[in-house]
Amino acid sequence: MTQKQEGLPQHLLATSRRLLLDALATSGMLFKIIIPISIVTRLLQQWGVVDQVGILLAPVMKLVGLPGEIGLVWATAMVTNLYGGMVVFASVAPELDFTVAQATIMTTMMLVAHALPVELKIAQKAGTRFRTMLLLRVGGALVLGWLLNIGYQLTGTLQQPNQALWNPPPVDPGWISWMLAEARNMVSIFLIILALMVLLEVLKAVGITALMTKLLEPILNLLGMGKEAAPLTIIGMTLGLGYGGALLIREAQSGSLSKQDVFAAFALLGICHSLIEDTLLMALLGGHASGILWARLFFALLITYLFSLLIPRLPHGIFERYLVRSTIADKTNAKEAGCC
């Protein structure tokens, strides 16, 4: 056996240990965001705050061609997650004469703006401004919903009655059931993050990451992103903002991504993430691929491209004040510069 072969087990052991520690650190950082926000969100639901937000959104829903009752569905999805919005929709849908077009508008808006307390905090932790990302996602959802409504009305498409394919089972409202469900979610998140880190390591070792980055580099350059953001952005777009965002936070805090890369990545992911799971969930409610997949993807690419044109023309102070914020890497660099 050669010396190289003898050293292989030690190398694999060291790599496994490093990936496990990285996954624990990344998951722990994510849990510090998710756990307190989940508790506050749960309390807001029980205190009826979400219901009041739904009432306030009722007039806005009519602007995108939806009945006012859908305001509660969107409010629930924005404050909790897509599953919460789906449960509320199942309870109000029998009373609504919904078309496929309306279902597509509603589900597309839910996909653009959902789970905002958690997902905006993740984006903020990576170095973007909370209020800017909030405006981008809620405003983007409304603009995209309005455009879809106009398009479906002008073309007369998808006007047939909607048939949702999903009827949720009753949800236990107790705190114990909620805490058990959250604990299962935490374990799932850790396992998925560990699996993603292993996958990234394998893809990097066999050269697929380099190939993927090379193929996507022209598109990323057009969107104002460097090649370093490519693999993590792809993870976020395919699997979700929580997983891709957690890895982006790690890279942003290490200083390997520029602030423009971070902002462009989260602008893209904020509007269009989890293209597999979330898209399929909204299809169960009757959402059509023209909205929940293609319009959302095109809209996200367009918005990110427009930001890539705007950001270089902005004064540096405006960019720093309104779009991005200081990260751990910035503070560390500032301290080192001060010491020198």
From TrEMBL:
<feature type="domain" description="Nucleoside transporter/FeoB GTPase Gate">
    <location>
        <begin position="30"/>
        <end position="114"/>
    </location>
</feature>
<dbReference type="InterPro" id="IPR011642">
    <property type="entry name" value="Gate_dom"/>
</dbReference>
<feature type="transmembrane region" description="Helical">
    <location>
        <begin position="99"/>
        <end position="122"/>
    </location>
</feature>
<feature type="transmembrane region" description="Helical">
    <location>
        <begin position="229"/>
        <end position="250"/>
    </location>
</feature>
<feature type="transmembrane region" description="Helical">
    <location>
        <begin position="175"/>
        <end position="198"/>
    </location>
</feature>
<feature type="transmembrane region" description="Helical">
    <location>
        <begin position="72"/>
        <end position="93"/>
    </location>
</feature>
<keyword id="KW-0472">Membrane</keyword>
<feature type="transmembrane region" description="Helical">
    <location>
        <begin position="134"/>
        <end position="155"/>
    </location>
</feature>
<feature type="transmembrane region" description="Helical">
    <location>
        <begin position="291"/>
        <end position="311"/>
    </location>
</feature>
<feature type="domain" description="Nucleoside transporter/FeoB GTPase Gate">
    <location>
        <begin position="187"/>
        <end position="274"/>
    </location>
</feature>
<dbReference type="Pfam" id="PF07670">
    <property type="entry name" value="Gate"/>
</dbReference>
<protein>
    <recommendedName>
        <fullName>Nucleoside transporter/FeoB GTPase Gate domain-containing protein</fullName>
    </recommendedName>
</protein>
<keyword id="KW-1133">Transmembrane helix</keyword>
<feature type="transmembrane region" description="Helical">
    <location>
        <begin position="262"/>
        <end position="285"/>
    </location>
</feature>
<keyword id="KW-0812">Transmembrane</keyword>
